[in-house]
Amino acid sequence: MEKFKAFLKRKDIEISLKRYGIDALGAMAQGLFCSLLIGTIINTIGTQFNIAFLTEPVATVGKVDYTVGGIATAMSGPAMAVAIGYALKCPPLVLFSMISVGFAANALGGAGGPLAVLFIAILSAECGKAVSKETKVDILVTPLVTIGIGVLLSWLIAPPIGKAAMWVGDLIMWATEQQPFIMGILVSVVVGMALTLPISSAAICAALRLTGLAGGAAVAGCCAQMIGFAVISFKENRFGGLVSQGIGTSMLQMGNIVKNPRIWIAPTLASAVTGPIATCLFKLKMNGAPVSSGMGTCGLVGQIGVYTGWVNDIAAGTKAAITAFDWTGLILISFVLPALFSLLFHAAVKKLGWVKDGDMKL
User: Cα–Cα distances in Å, from 304 out to 36, 151, 188, 298, 345?
Assistant: First the structure.
């Protein structure tokens, strides 16, 4: 056993929740940003501004035409797998082999491909690291093992993992349609808290393909956390904190939350209020890329995702036009109501003596 532990340490194979549930999951989200999300944004810009270069095919593969954004979107599987491999500190030959692994896992995982990529990329990367530089023909052995295991696992388990992810995601979205008030609260609070925790809410939403009303509730929850912390900590962090948390990430407050968990009350209660307002009053739907559901106001990706969804719905004929009510709902849910409710709840917890000045200093 001691020899095995020493081997794992030498190979930098760390079997832990942090390595797989935080580092790998967060990296997967970054891979999605650099492929699926960017591709969606490029397509939306091209369509809305009638930019021919962005709307016309630039490549044809297997009789399938690809635009610039389409190429980026098609590479989401490889991008996720390489990002995960990078987070797991894979040596070069393993990292480069992850391109094939990601493509296979995402393709065979279907609509639930991102979750399949997460599991299969982790297993393949660790196996590749285990054999890396252990033979004199490393340039052959390492890619063969990494790709071989990745493709085999993709064939065996990617389809059921993908179907399971789709089932869970569909269940959440169906439940939100049936019970928009209750599920609006639950989805908003849970996804919002995931955004502030050192895990990736964006990757979770992408893995479950969370869109529709449930996606709207997720956007509301993430915005409540980011805008909430930005405004209630303004006294301590001023404009730098307002920007870094409001359009950056509320995860910056994680160290302060560990010291005093009660600072988390106001943004979380705000998300419990804005979630059902989004689902019941404004019927806010996030029908863009699922990864956008877990982004909130980070780089305004959540808002861009909602807008992209409107454009897609209009193109599909399921929505007549973007109305003033749509814009009002998006602005209120994303910025105004999170700030208002967070300030109100924060005033209450301060009055109770649970939070004091300086508790949220970055």
Answer: 13, 35, 18, 10, 28
